[in-house]
Structure prediction request, 384 residues.
Amino acid sequence: MNQRIGTYIIQKLAGESYKAYVPPPLPPEPHLDLAALYPYLEKATLALAELNSIHKFIPNPSLFIYMYVRKEALLSSQIEGTQSSFSDLMLFEHHQNTEVSQDDVEEVSNYVKAINYGLQRLKEGFPLSLRLIREIHGVLLSGGRGSGKLPGEFRRSQNWIGGTRPGNALFVPAPVTHLNQCLADFEKFLHSESLPVLIKAGLAHIQFETIHPFLDGNGRLGRLLITLLLCLGGMLDEPILYLSLYLKQNRHIYYEFLQEVRTHGNWETWLEFFLEGVYKSGKQAITTTSQINNLFDQDLAKIAKLGRARFSCEQALEYMKRLPQVTVPLLASELGMTAPTARSALNYMAEIGVIEEISGKKRDKVYVYRKYLDILEDGAEPLG
Prediction:
């Protein structure tokens, strides 16, 4: 008998039988073949070390953290089907109108709040525990579609994945009667230090998805858990890795491996895939950092040639790093400029090719920092 495979519990609902899956506790038994995983682990660890090092030497690290958290939030939410784009999220956060459902954008914005909340609690010395996971979940589902799905509370009824009921579902997680034990075992594993941090994060993610302890938000919180474990374990100083892009691009394989762990206990195959994703995501983040730095340098060099106008243009550019789409009234209000000064700065920047005007109107013009937004949105287009 394979000890890595959980137990199916026969349950009944409205007279129909179904099988709910109770996973064995972590770490897997028999033990993982760490020797086979080591080449993947080494590559991923080196990529994270390089990323962690490079972000400390960039001119504005707080801006990069600000943007990376939002990109991870956007991508993780897109895996769940939201249609929000990067510009939608930033417009929403600056109280501007968006082109998509407010519920979609609010879900992404709540993810940003949730990850920041979790990291702040860890920095304060609070342990990564079931209590903290519930608190983070409460923030994640604090508004939008999930607000009626018991934010901050573990489920008190059976849930399922796929299908219209447990009887025809693709997967049914542990029944409520077994949930407390599954979660107690999970918390014990979170506190253990017997495995490398990256291996622990990969195991914890799948186990959390399998337990599926909440009525909603399990996928997003399970991916958020990876970031928390990497920061807590000292692999990252800040949340500057967006693994959800890799998972989004390979989501069909991701779901297959997730199911293979449940049906065959094949943890090593999942971990190879996971570690490869960390490696690729780390390298991609390093490239993105370099592209954005180069763009800022080039654009500031163009602005430096503008004479006296450069001062207001530099202020405008700094603001557009956080909100790449603006209007004259918004910029004037945010920066305490007169409307003519804001209009002049934006028009100068458009003339030298730093930004572009996209409305085509004589009044109520909209200016976009397009080259910057293109870098940020690479891979972050909503799924069709």
About this structure: The two ends are 42 Å apart (CA to CA). The CA atoms of residues 79 and 251 lie 8 Å apart. The mean pLDDT is 88.
